[in-house]
Design brief:
single chain, 505 residues, alpha/beta, six-stranded mixed beta sheet, 16 helices, 23% strand, globular, binds zinc ion, MlrC_N
Length: 505
């Protein structure tokens, strides 16, 4: 009989330093056949980002019909995924946890579970949310079922998560161009072990006392590039199945938030040795991580952008990056753009993408395209200074966006502001084209983002990562973590070299 593999998981990254609360409505929820359709190996499709396979040590020639996937019976249970945001409403989390547990109980005999998660979900009142979820899952499926977790490298590996999963892997690229390669690897390793009736692999976990923002740990630059570049070689070794390095999630305050290494394989000694080796390698470079681009305060960066002849000049509003959990309505950058005469009345054109404010969008919809508006924008979710900003201008476009809901393009002097109904992030050319605009037509483009996603990176003639305040402030030490393990770099910059400890299973 074919091995039966259930699929379940909740995928979100939650900043606990933002006032935003993620509700059930923020999630895309997939069940039954819709859930199966999510996975390219089930639909016989190529994986998105397949061109990066070689860079992360994977085979480029993945057939459309994967034998390992055909040889198992997939059992869809539940998958919920949302844009990063604030903590998840406890009622939403408990309802889904119950649905997953019930679904697994009713699924009958199971051999495996693909646990499709991010790894940085926060739920008020629940420490280590993914650990809580996997413990609840184990209670119903028992210890024998083989569980394979696919995670974001910005997730956290707690002891509970490690102990209750048999295979754990994460992305090897930031930006996460290999997200689907990673999910496929997690599924394939699981299925191949089940099909060959192999015993559970050995596994080893090494935590590294480092907690850094993603903007300092992009795998496009050193030292993360070489650190992650070690993985394919380690994975090639005899007795090693998978090696994974987690940066961890910096914008939450729990003891589990830190970097981690997990190696799995058939040779216990090789697995432990590789985990320790990668852990030591990580620690060796811990103080070499730097921001992925030049950094500055927003006002000073805007001065530089206005004065530059590089067009478009990109400024990332990193402290309010909704892609990491920011509220998406902090007005620090909007206020500065509105206050610049060079932009309001002068020769410089600027674009701000984007800011969430459903009431402002409704006011734009009321007057329609080409209508004049006098509205207050932003500063409602995250009320930090300078708060709502008055924007007087013309509505240039109104478009229904699949992610941002009804979206208004408002121009005030030389400044164009994209205002959305739902939190959204502009990462692709297509999103701008949908609004009838090209970011290349502007002199200065401000995006609520940290490191630039590929399309935006390609269009930027120059770029400064601005260290703005917000729920995902890049200056971690000023956020005031209280519950993370100490000592921890960079919170204790002069800490002694740690004794790295191996946990096995
Ligand atoms: Zn991530």
């Amino acid at each position: 009989m074919a091995p039966r593999v259930a699929i379940c998981g909740i995928h979100i990254e939650s900043s606990t330093f933002t006032p935003h609360m993620t509700t059930a409505a923020d999630f895309t929820v997939l069940r039954a056949d819709d859930l199966l359709q999510r996975y390219p190996w089930i639909t016989h499709s190529p994986i998105p980002g397949a061109e990066h396979a070689e860079a992360v040590g994977e085979d480029l020639s993945i057939p459309l019909v994967r034998e390992w996937s055909e040889a198992v019976e997939w059992v869809p249970v539940l998958h919920c995924g949302a844009l990063p945001g604030g903590p998840v409403e406890p009622t939403a989390y408990s309802a889904w946890r119950e649905e997953i547990v019930d679904g697994l109980r009713e699924a009958g005999h199971l051999d495996g579970i693909l646990f499709d998660i991010h790894g940085a979900m926060s739920v008020p009142g629940v420490d280590d949310a993914e650990g809580d979820l996997i413990r609840a899952i184990r209670e119903v499926v028992g210890p024998e079922v083989m569980v394979s977790a696919s995670m974001d490298l910005h997730g956290n590996v707690s002891r509970a998560l490690f102990e209750n999963c048999d295979l754990l892997t994460c992305y090897r690229m930031a930006p996460h161009e290999d997200a689907w390669i990673c999910r496929e690897r997690a599924a394939r390793n699981l299925c191949e072990l089940l099909i060959s009736d192999s015993p559970k692999p050995h596994k080893a976990l090494v935590h590294v006392p480092v907690l850094l923002p993603g903007e300092m740990t992009s795998t496009r630059i050193e030292p993360a590039k070489s650190l992650y570049g070690r993985i394919p070689e380690v994975e090639q070794r005899q007795g090693i199945l998978d090696a994974a390095i987690w940066i961890g999630f910096a914008w939450a305050d729990e003891p589990r938030n830190k970097a981690a290494i997990v190696v799995t394989g058939t040779d216990a000694h090789a697995v432990e040795e590789a985990a320790l080796e990668l852990g030591r390698e990580f620690w060796k470079v811990h103080s070499d991580f730097v921001f992925v681009a030049p950094t500055d305060s927003y006002p000073s960066a805007l001065d530089a952008a206005i004065a530059s002849d590089k067009r478009p000049f990109l400024l990332s509003d990193s402290g309010d990056n909704p892609g990491a959990g920011g509220a998406d309505d902090v007005t620090v950058t909007l206020a500065e753009l509105l206050g610049r005469p060079e932009i309001q009345d002068g020769p410089v054109t600027a674009l701000l993408a984007s800011i969430v404010d459903p009431a402002a969008v409704a006011a734009c919809a009321e007057v329609g395209v080409n209508g004049h508006v006098d509205i207050e924008v932003g500063g409602h979710l995250d009320s930090r200074e300078p708060g709502p900003q008055r924007v007087v201008g013309v509505v240039e476009n109104l478009v229904d966006d699949p992610r941002g809901g009804l979206t208004a393009v408002v121009r005030s002097g030389g400044l164009t502001v994209i205002v959305t109904t739902k939190r959204n992030q502009y990462t692709t050319n297509e999103q701008f084209h949908r609004l009838g605009m090209d970011p290349r037509d502007f002199d200065v483009v401000t995006v609520k983002i940290g490191y630039l996603e590929p399309d935006i990176f390609d269009l930027a003639a120059d770029w400064i990562l601005t260290l703005t305040p917000g729920g995902v402030d890049q200056d971690l030490v000023r956020l005031g973590h209280r519950r993370i393990d100490r000592p921890m770099y960079p919170f204790d910059p002069d800490m002694a070299d740690p004794q790295l400890i191996i946990v096995t299973g």
